[in-house]
Amino acid sequence: MTKDDTPESHGFSIALGGRRHGRPSPSLDNPVFQIADLDVWYGDHQAVRDVTLTVGSRQITSMIGPSGCGKSTVIRCLNRMNDLIPGARVTGKVAYYGESLYDAEVDPIEVRRRIGMVFQKPNPFPKSVYDNVAYGPRVNGVKGNLDDLVEEALTGAALWDEVKDKLKASALALSGGQQQRLCIARAIAVKPEVILMDEPCSALDPIATAKIEDLMAELASQFTIVIVTHNMQQAARISDYTAFFTADVDEEGVRHGRLAEYDTTVTIFENPADQRTEDYITGRFG
Ligand SMILES: Nc1ncnc2c1ncn2[C@@H]1O[C@H](COP(=O)(O)OP(=O)(O)OP(=O)(O)O)[C@@H](O)[C@H]1O
Ligand SMILES: [Mg+2]
């Protein structure tokens, strides 16, 4: 048994790296995002303080931690989704392949094409299955055979077999798990470089969750994935690196999200450096 297969961690069973699908060892040698001294404010409330971390290419990076500690806030910084929230302000550095995402000349629409996002609640457009997937390529003026592209994206999202006979049916008639995979197909149809996922499985049953986890492992051979999850086993199973966030309370009693520890998933789950990480992953806190 290799270390990756070790079933026991902190007294409860986690298949560490159980869905790695033979991918290479975790590495930050090719950074995609370099985040440094990141602060995020909503109005005059500082939601996130002083986050520094690097996301590696073709890695699955998970963000875990208790509710309200700023995971969604941080992941939204990676494709400038916070721009769309009135009063949100981001300071510090978020570099994407070495270039600041927040420079004035950077086009946020182009950023969101290259860095796609899948949300907690599946949000298909009230259109057909086909039109959901074709939407992005059409908007981007993609030339070539749209039918092939739609099939490729649906196959990539492990949904093709289930929907190939109902491409013209409304996406809203699909089950929740199918809708979530449709949203993943829609995200990959524009051929992004990165996919951000904020709790993509929280509303899904274990079968749909397993499908999406398998899918992520597959996609990681082509894409860089960052996922927020409350499911410890999921983080342990699928991710290469894990960022554990927590919230500090300052002198005035205000909570600020912070990155407590960031390391390989194996280290975070087997040998964390910070007591708060250990308490959280063993269920003593949060
Ligand atoms: N749109 C917003 N406007 C104002 N404050 C916000 C907004 N979104 C988040 N916040 C605040 O920022 C802090 C961090 O919230 P965030 O949603 O990032 O936490 P989270 O770690 O994703 O939590 P959860 O696990 O519950 O999803 C919280 O105090 C929250 O109230
Ligand atoms: Mg959240």
Automatic annotation (TrEMBL):
Keywords: ATP-binding, Nucleotide-binding, Translocase, Transport. The keyword Hydrolase does not apply. GO terms for biological process: phosphate ion transmembrane transport. Gene3D superfamilies: P-loop containing nucleotide triphosphate hydrolases. One of its GO terms (cellular component) is membrane. It comes from the Bacteria. Residues 33-272 form the ABC transporter domain. SMART domains: AAA. It holds the Pfam family ABC_tran. GO terms for molecular function: ATP binding; ATP hydrolysis activity; phosphate transmembrane transporter activity. Residues 1-28 are annotated as: Disordered. InterPro entries: AAA+_ATPase, ABC_transporter-like_ATP-bd, ABC_transporter-like_CS, P-loop_NTPase, PstB-like. The keyword Acetylation does not apply. NCBIfam families: 3a0107s01c2. PANTHER family: ABC TRANSPORTER I FAMILY MEMBER 17. This is Phosphate ABC transporter ATP-binding protein. It comes from Streptomyces lunaelactis.
